[in-house]
Amino acid sequence: MSETIDVSATAVDEDDRSGWQAEDQIAVEYLAACVEAVNNDDAFANFKSNPKYKTILEHVLKDQGQCYLNICREMNEEAVDVNIEAFKENDKIGNPETHIYPGIEGPVSPTTLRYMKNTFEMALMMDGAEVSKVVEVGGGYGGLCRVLSKVCEFDEYIMIDLPEVSALQRKYIDQFPDIKDKVKCVSTNDFGQIEDVDLFISNYALSECDLKSQMAYYDMIVTNSKYVYLIYNLVNFNDFHYNDFIDKIKEDFTFDTGRDYENTVILATRKDESN
Protein backbone atom coordinates (compact mmCIF):
# COMPACT_ATOMS: atom_id res chain seq x y z
CA MET A 1 0.00 0.00 0.00
CA SER A 2 1.31 3.45 -0.89
CA GLU A 3 2.22 5.94 1.78
CA THR A 4 -0.39 8.65 2.43
CA ILE A 5 0.99 12.18 2.49
CA ASP A 6 -0.67 15.26 3.93
CA VAL A 7 -0.90 17.98 1.27
CA SER A 8 0.01 20.50 3.93
CA ALA A 9 3.44 18.89 4.05
CA THR A 10 4.20 20.07 0.52
CA ALA A 11 7.31 22.23 0.69
CA VAL A 12 6.74 25.95 0.22
CA ASP A 13 9.95 27.34 1.68
CA GLU A 14 12.99 26.84 -0.55
CA ASP A 15 14.92 25.77 2.54
CA ASP A 16 12.62 22.74 2.78
CA ARG A 17 13.39 21.56 -0.76
CA SER A 18 16.85 20.06 -0.17
CA GLY A 19 18.61 22.66 -2.28
CA TRP A 20 16.25 22.45 -5.28
CA GLN A 21 16.11 25.95 -6.78
CA ALA A 22 12.90 25.80 -8.80
CA GLU A 23 10.56 28.78 -8.68
CA ASP A 24 8.26 28.61 -5.68
CA GLN A 25 4.95 28.41 -7.54
CA ILE A 26 6.18 25.76 -9.96
CA ALA A 27 7.68 23.69 -7.15
CA VAL A 28 4.61 23.92 -4.91
CA GLU A 29 2.19 22.97 -7.69
CA TYR A 30 4.37 20.09 -8.85
CA LEU A 31 4.77 18.69 -5.35
CA ALA A 32 1.04 19.04 -4.71
CA ALA A 33 0.36 17.09 -7.91
CA CYS A 34 2.67 14.33 -6.65
CA VAL A 35 0.84 14.23 -3.33
CA GLU A 36 -2.54 14.06 -5.06
CA ALA A 37 -1.39 11.17 -7.25
CA VAL A 38 -0.17 9.25 -4.21
CA ASN A 39 -3.35 9.77 -2.20
CA ASN A 40 -5.96 9.50 -4.97
CA ASP A 41 -6.04 6.56 -7.38
CA ASP A 42 -8.02 8.51 -9.98
CA ALA A 43 -5.38 11.24 -9.93
CA PHE A 44 -2.67 8.58 -10.14
CA ALA A 45 -4.33 7.09 -13.23
CA ASN A 46 -3.93 10.45 -14.98
CA PHE A 47 -1.00 12.17 -13.26
CA LYS A 48 1.14 12.34 -16.40
CA SER A 49 -1.57 14.51 -17.99
CA ASN A 50 -1.90 16.88 -15.02
CA PRO A 51 -0.79 20.35 -16.24
CA LYS A 52 0.74 21.14 -12.84
CA TYR A 53 2.81 17.97 -13.02
CA LYS A 54 3.81 18.61 -16.62
CA THR A 55 5.64 21.82 -15.72
CA ILE A 56 8.44 19.52 -14.50
CA LEU A 57 7.94 16.19 -16.31
CA GLU A 58 6.06 14.68 -19.27
CA HIS A 59 6.33 17.84 -21.36
CA VAL A 60 8.50 16.47 -24.18
CA LEU A 61 7.08 17.56 -27.53
CA LYS A 62 6.14 15.19 -30.36
CA ASP A 63 8.91 16.49 -32.65
CA GLN A 64 11.46 16.12 -29.85
CA GLY A 65 10.33 12.53 -29.44
CA GLN A 66 11.00 11.93 -33.15
CA CYS A 67 14.49 13.38 -32.72
CA TYR A 68 15.18 11.08 -29.76
CA LEU A 69 13.91 8.10 -31.74
CA ASN A 70 16.18 8.98 -34.67
CA ILE A 71 19.18 9.19 -32.34
CA CYS A 72 18.33 5.81 -30.82
CA ARG A 73 18.09 4.24 -34.26
CA GLU A 74 21.48 5.70 -35.18
CA MET A 75 23.00 4.22 -32.02
CA ASN A 76 21.39 0.78 -32.22
CA GLU A 77 18.46 0.26 -34.57
CA GLU A 78 18.21 -3.44 -33.76
CA ALA A 79 17.89 -2.72 -30.04
CA VAL A 80 15.07 -0.26 -30.74
CA ASP A 81 13.12 -2.83 -32.73
CA VAL A 82 13.72 -5.63 -30.23
CA ASN A 83 12.88 -3.63 -27.09
CA ILE A 84 10.33 -1.01 -28.13
CA GLU A 85 7.28 -2.92 -26.86
CA ALA A 86 8.99 -3.47 -23.52
CA PHE A 87 9.92 0.21 -23.30
CA LYS A 88 6.30 1.18 -24.03
CA GLU A 89 5.21 -0.47 -20.77
CA ASN A 90 6.21 2.85 -19.21
CA ASP A 91 3.18 4.42 -20.92
CA LYS A 92 0.60 2.04 -19.45
CA ILE A 93 0.26 4.02 -16.23
CA GLY A 94 -0.52 7.70 -15.70
CA ASN A 95 -2.21 8.47 -19.05
CA PRO A 96 0.68 10.24 -20.79
CA GLU A 97 0.36 12.10 -24.08
CA THR A 98 1.31 9.65 -26.82
CA HIS A 99 1.85 9.86 -30.58
CA ILE A 100 2.32 7.65 -33.60
CA TYR A 101 5.89 7.50 -34.91
CA PRO A 102 7.11 5.91 -38.16
CA GLY A 103 8.41 2.39 -37.67
CA ILE A 104 6.71 1.87 -34.31
CA GLU A 105 3.47 -0.07 -34.03
CA GLY A 106 1.00 1.86 -31.88
CA PRO A 107 1.46 5.07 -29.91
CA VAL A 108 4.35 5.91 -27.59
CA SER A 109 5.02 8.93 -25.41
CA PRO A 110 7.87 11.24 -26.40
CA THR A 111 9.05 11.09 -22.78
CA THR A 112 9.56 7.34 -23.07
CA LEU A 113 11.54 7.98 -26.26
CA ARG A 114 13.74 10.37 -24.31
CA TYR A 115 14.30 7.70 -21.65
CA MET A 116 15.27 5.34 -24.48
CA LYS A 117 17.91 7.81 -25.64
CA ASN A 118 19.24 8.14 -22.08
CA THR A 119 19.37 4.35 -21.77
CA PHE A 120 21.21 3.84 -25.07
CA GLU A 121 23.76 6.56 -24.24
CA MET A 122 24.46 4.92 -20.89
CA ALA A 123 24.86 1.53 -22.53
CA LEU A 124 27.42 2.93 -24.98
CA MET A 125 29.31 4.65 -22.17
CA MET A 126 29.55 1.48 -20.07
CA ASP A 127 30.35 -0.75 -23.07
CA GLY A 128 29.11 -4.01 -21.58
CA ALA A 129 30.28 -3.40 -18.01
CA GLU A 130 28.32 -5.23 -15.33
CA VAL A 131 25.89 -3.02 -13.44
CA SER A 132 24.68 -4.15 -10.05
CA LYS A 133 23.90 -0.94 -8.14
CA VAL A 134 22.35 2.16 -9.71
CA VAL A 135 21.66 5.44 -7.91
CA GLU A 136 19.48 8.13 -9.46
CA VAL A 137 19.04 11.57 -7.92
CA GLY A 138 15.79 13.16 -9.01
CA GLY A 139 14.17 10.10 -10.57
CA GLY A 140 10.91 11.75 -11.61
CA TYR A 141 8.15 9.17 -11.22
CA GLY A 142 10.52 6.28 -11.98
CA GLY A 143 10.17 6.23 -15.77
CA LEU A 144 13.87 6.02 -16.58
CA CYS A 145 14.24 3.24 -14.01
CA ARG A 146 11.41 1.34 -15.74
CA VAL A 147 12.92 1.76 -19.22
CA LEU A 148 16.51 1.05 -18.16
CA SER A 149 15.40 -2.13 -16.37
CA LYS A 150 14.44 -3.66 -19.71
CA VAL A 151 18.05 -3.77 -20.90
CA CYS A 152 20.03 -3.59 -17.65
CA GLU A 153 19.73 -6.37 -15.10
CA PHE A 154 20.62 -4.38 -12.00
CA ASP A 155 20.32 -5.86 -8.52
CA GLU A 156 19.54 -2.59 -6.75
CA TYR A 157 18.25 0.77 -7.94
CA ILE A 158 18.13 3.63 -5.43
CA MET A 159 16.12 6.74 -6.27
CA ILE A 160 16.66 9.83 -4.11
CA ASP A 161 14.12 12.62 -4.27
CA LEU A 162 11.95 14.96 -2.24
CA PRO A 163 9.55 13.12 0.11
CA GLU A 164 6.46 13.90 -1.97
CA VAL A 165 8.13 12.71 -5.17
CA SER A 166 9.67 9.68 -3.50
CA ALA A 167 6.22 8.51 -2.40
CA LEU A 168 4.96 8.77 -5.99
CA GLN A 169 7.98 6.82 -7.21
CA ARG A 170 7.19 4.07 -4.74
CA LYS A 171 3.57 3.85 -5.88
CA TYR A 172 4.58 3.86 -9.55
CA ILE A 173 7.35 1.27 -9.29
CA ASP A 174 5.09 -1.00 -7.23
CA GLN A 175 2.98 -1.43 -10.38
CA PHE A 176 5.82 -3.44 -11.96
CA PRO A 177 6.35 -6.76 -10.12
CA ASP A 178 9.56 -7.55 -11.99
CA ILE A 179 11.48 -4.64 -10.45
CA LYS A 180 9.57 -3.41 -7.39
CA ASP A 181 11.66 -5.42 -4.92
CA LYS A 182 14.91 -4.17 -6.47
CA VAL A 183 14.04 -0.47 -6.21
CA LYS A 184 14.47 1.66 -3.10
CA CYS A 185 12.82 5.08 -2.98
CA VAL A 186 14.73 7.25 -0.53
CA SER A 187 13.74 10.71 0.65
CA THR A 188 16.25 13.54 0.46
CA ASN A 189 15.70 13.79 4.22
CA ASP A 190 17.10 10.30 4.73
CA PHE A 191 19.90 9.64 2.23
CA GLY A 192 23.52 9.30 3.25
CA GLN A 193 26.79 7.80 2.08
CA ILE A 194 26.34 5.15 -0.61
CA GLU A 195 29.29 2.96 -1.53
CA ASP A 196 30.12 0.74 -4.51
CA VAL A 197 27.85 2.44 -7.03
CA ASP A 198 28.17 1.14 -10.58
CA LEU A 199 26.10 3.85 -12.23
CA PHE A 200 25.08 7.29 -10.93
CA ILE A 201 22.33 9.12 -12.85
CA SER A 202 20.85 12.57 -12.51
CA ASN A 203 18.89 14.06 -15.38
CA TYR A 204 18.43 17.78 -14.71
CA ALA A 205 17.86 17.40 -10.95
CA LEU A 206 21.42 17.70 -9.65
CA SER A 207 22.08 20.75 -11.80
CA GLU A 208 18.97 22.43 -10.38
CA CYS A 209 20.31 22.19 -6.82
CA ASP A 210 22.44 24.75 -5.05
CA LEU A 211 26.21 24.20 -4.93
CA LYS A 212 26.15 22.97 -1.32
CA SER A 213 23.71 20.19 -2.25
CA GLN A 214 25.64 19.31 -5.40
CA MET A 215 28.85 18.89 -3.44
CA ALA A 216 27.07 16.79 -0.79
CA TYR A 217 25.83 14.39 -3.46
CA TYR A 218 29.26 14.35 -5.04
CA ASP A 219 31.10 13.56 -1.84
CA MET A 220 28.62 10.96 -0.59
CA ILE A 221 27.69 9.18 -3.84
CA VAL A 222 29.25 10.39 -7.09
CA THR A 223 32.82 9.91 -5.93
CA ASN A 224 31.94 6.30 -5.06
CA SER A 225 30.61 5.58 -8.58
CA LYS A 226 32.21 3.88 -11.57
CA TYR A 227 30.10 5.61 -14.22
CA VAL A 228 28.17 8.88 -14.15
CA TYR A 229 25.42 10.04 -16.51
CA LEU A 230 24.20 13.60 -16.03
CA ILE A 231 22.07 16.02 -17.97
CA TYR A 232 22.88 19.53 -16.85
CA ASN A 233 19.96 21.92 -17.14
CA LEU A 234 21.23 25.26 -18.41
CA VAL A 235 17.91 27.12 -18.66
CA ASN A 236 15.32 28.60 -16.32
CA PHE A 237 17.50 28.72 -13.22
CA ASN A 238 19.64 31.55 -11.94
CA ASP A 239 22.76 29.88 -10.59
CA PHE A 240 24.01 26.55 -11.92
CA HIS A 241 27.59 26.28 -10.69
CA TYR A 242 28.37 24.33 -13.87
CA ASN A 243 32.07 25.18 -13.88
CA ASP A 244 32.40 24.39 -10.18
CA PHE A 245 30.90 20.95 -10.73
CA ILE A 246 33.01 20.27 -13.83
CA ASP A 247 36.16 21.23 -11.92
CA LYS A 248 35.17 18.79 -9.21
CA ILE A 249 34.36 15.86 -11.49
CA LYS A 250 37.66 16.33 -13.38
CA GLU A 251 39.49 15.25 -10.23
CA ASP A 252 38.15 11.70 -10.35
CA PHE A 253 36.67 11.08 -13.80
CA THR A 254 37.39 11.24 -17.49
CA PHE A 255 34.33 12.42 -19.38
CA ASP A 256 32.76 13.39 -22.65
CA THR A 257 30.00 15.90 -23.16
CA GLY A 258 27.08 15.94 -25.56
CA ARG A 259 23.90 17.89 -26.12
CA ASP A 260 20.26 17.33 -25.34
CA TYR A 261 18.73 20.34 -27.03
CA GLU A 262 19.89 23.32 -24.94
CA ASN A 263 21.18 21.10 -22.12
CA THR A 264 24.58 19.46 -21.61
CA VAL A 265 24.97 15.69 -21.29
CA ILE A 266 27.94 14.50 -19.20
CA LEU A 267 29.13 10.90 -19.59
CA ALA A 268 31.87 10.19 -17.08
CA THR A 269 34.01 7.16 -16.29
CA ARG A 270 36.03 6.90 -13.12
CA LYS A 271 39.72 7.18 -13.96
CA ASP A 272 40.62 3.80 -12.49
CA GLU A 273 37.87 2.21 -14.62
CA SER A 274 39.05 3.77 -17.88
CA ASN A 275 42.66 2.62 -17.57
Question: Which helices and strands occur, and which strands form pairs?
Answer:
Blueprint (H helix, E strand, L loop, with lengths): L23 H16 L1 H5 L16 H26 L22 H17 L6 E5 L5 H6 L7 E6 L1 H11 L9 E5 L9 E7 L7 H10 L4 E8 L9 H9 L2 E8 L2 E8 H4 L1
Parallel strand pairs: 1-2, 1-4, 2-3, 4-5
Antiparallel strand pairs: 5-7, 6-7
Helix pairs in contact: 1-6, 3-4, 7-8
Provide an overview of this structure:
The protein has helices at 24-39, 41-45, 62-87, 110-126, 143-148, 163-173, 211-220, 242-250, 271-274, and strands spanning 133-137, 156-161, 183-187, 197-203, 225-232, 253-260, 263-270. It is α/β, with parallel strands linked by helices. The chain has a single domain (13-58, 113-274), classed as 3-Layer(aba) Sandwich (Rossmann fold). The chain has a 7-stranded mixed beta sheet with strand order 3-2-1-4-5-7-6, sandwiched between helices. Strand 1, helix 5 and strand 2 form a beta-alpha-beta unit. The longest helix has 26 residues, at 62-87. It is globular, with a radius of gyration of 18 Å. The model is unreliable at 1-14 (pLDDT under 50).
CATH homologous superfamily grouping: Vaccinia Virus protein VP39
The CATH C-level name is Alpha Beta
Category from helices, strands and their pairing = alpha/beta
Extended strand count: 7
> Gap between N and C termini, in Å?
46 Å
Going across the major beta sheet, what is the strand order?
3-2-1-4-5-7-6
The name of the CATH architecture is: 3-Layer(aba) Sandwich
Q: What is the string of helix and strand elements? A: HHHHEHEHEEHEHEEH
If you consult CATH, what is the topology? Rossmann fold
Could you estimate the helical fraction of the residues in percent? 25-40%
